[in-house]
Amino acid sequence: xxxxxxxxxxxxxxxxxxxxxxxxxxxxxxxxxxxxxxxxxxxxxxxxxxxxxxxxxxxxxxxxxxxxxxxxxxxxxxxxxxxxxxxxxxxxxxxxxxxxxxxxxxxxxxxxxxxxxxxxxxxxxxxxxxxxxxxxxxxxxxxxxxxxxxxxxxxxxxxxxxxxxxxxxxxxxxxxxxxxxxxxxxxxxxxxxxxxxxxxxxxxxxxxxxxxxxxxxxxxxxxxxxxxxxxxxxxxxxxxxxxxxxxxxxxxxxxxxxxxxxxxxxxxxxxxxxxxxxxxxxxxxxxxxxxxxxxxxxxxxxxxxxxxxxxxxxxxxxxxxxxxxxxxxxxxxxxxxxxxxxxxxxx
Length: 347
What we know:
Layout: H1 2-19, E1 22-24, E2 33-35, E3 53-56, E4 62-68, E5 75-81, E6 100-102, E7 111-113, E8 164-169, E9 179-184, E10 196-200, E11 203-208, E12 214-216, E13 225-227, H2 254-260, E14 264-266, E15 283-285, H3 288-294, E16 299-301, E17 309-311, H4 316-345
Parallel strand pairs: 1-2, 6-7, 12-13
Antiparallel strand pairs: 3-4, 4-5, 8-9, 9-10, 10-11, 11-12, 14-15, 16-17
Helix pairs in contact: 2-4
C-alpha cells in the first residue's frame, strides 16, 4: 500500500512539474518563469529598486539588472554598481568565443547584423570643429582596429601602433565581384605600413602611402599623384605665381635646344608593362633619356628601384615660346637685310 502511495505521489509531482508555471508578481504566468513588476527606465543614480530582474553575486559590487521601460516600448539590460547606479561596468558577450547575431539565429561572424544598419550618435553639431587625431583613447565618433603589438602576438593591445581594418562588400564566392577599402596602421611589412588601399572587382585601384603619395593604377606612387593610365580633364593648371619663385632667369639658346630635341611616333610596350595600363593607340612624344641630355629640367625620375623617367611636357612650352621669339628675331633681321638690298638696287 505504501509503495502504491509513493508511486501515485511521484506521478502527480511529475505531471505537475511538467505543466506548472511559476510567477512572481503575477498569478497567471504564461511561461515557465515570469517576473512582473512596475516598469521603469534604467536609473542613472541612487540604488533603489529599479528593473524587473537582477543577477548578483555574494561578493563584488557589480550587478546585472534587466527591465522594461516606462517611457517607451523597449527593454533594457544594464551592468552597474549595486550601491550607485551612476557607476556602470562592462558587459561581456561570449568572452571565450562564439558569434553574436542581431536579427539572425545563424551568425557567421563575431557580430552578424541582419535586416538593419549601424548608427553612431557622436553628439557632433553642424558647428562642431573637427576633433584632433588621438592615440590611446577612442572617441565616441571613431571606429578603430587595434593590433597585438610586436612579436607576433594575438592578444589585443589597445596601446599598440599596429592595426588593420577592411571594409568590404560582395565577393562571397567570386573575388572579382568584391569592392573593399583597407586601412593599415604601423607595420614592419613595407607594403602594409600606414596606408589606405581601395579596390573594385577585387583589384587595387587606388593607394595612399605613408608619405601621402596617391597612386591610381599603381601600388608604388613616387609623387603626390601618380597615375598609370590616361587622364581626361577640362584643364590642368600648374602653380606659377611669382611669389612662389626665386632665382628667376631667362631661357637662353632656346632655338638650339629645340633643334636638338627629336620628336618621335611610337607605341607603348604593353606586353612588358601590363601594370602601367598603357594605351594601345599610336602616340607621339619624346624619349625621356634623350630629352634629359638637352633639357634636364623637364625630366623627372621615379623614386623607385627601376628609376623610370617621365617628361613634363607642359614645361617644354616655355622653351618653345623663347625659341619662336629667337627665330622671329632672325626672320626680322633677314627681312631688314633683304629690304636694304632691294633699296640699293633701285635707281
